Amino acid sequence: VEAVHLIANGKAPRIPQPEEGATYERIQKKENAEISWDQPAAALHNWIRGHDKVPGAWTTINGQVVTFYGSSLLDSSVPAGQELTIKGASRPGLVTKNGLVVFGNDGKMVLVRNLQFEDGKMIPASKYFSADDTTALELTEEEKKIAEDIR
């Protein structure tokens, strides 16, 4: 009651909070969000989800920084997929039809659904090996006419 009256009367003491030990701003920096692979799958999942969307948990794949988004724990048998070497990981990840499967040091799995490259391009993790495939869009004569009318 006394504290409420002090506040109401504008006489409550104001003690500035020290900045020493404050960590919120530092956690949000990209350089502090690198994935440490020597952890169990649950810790990897928590790290990726904890940094989803800002700043994004990242690792190095083929010499390029790749940011992981949308993880979930995977409790099934190891799915079929194409191996992907990840810097620092004890075993390669697997690019599957559902996404990228990575392994914790406990042998359990985490499924990552989206990847973002350094240039800002984001793709579904399942499309990692087909990300560079480009096909030209070919329009029929009728579609070309519609496109020209729209222009």
Automatic annotation (TrEMBL):
Highest taxon above the source species: Eukaryota
Sample GO molecular function, one term: catalytic activity
Gene3D superfamilies, alphabetized: Formyl transferase, C-terminal domain (3.10.25.10)
Domain Formyl transferase C-terminal positions: 29-130
Protein's name in the database: AL1L2 dehydrogenase
Species, as recorded: Melospiza melodia (Song sparrow)
Gene from which the chain derives: Aldh1l2_0
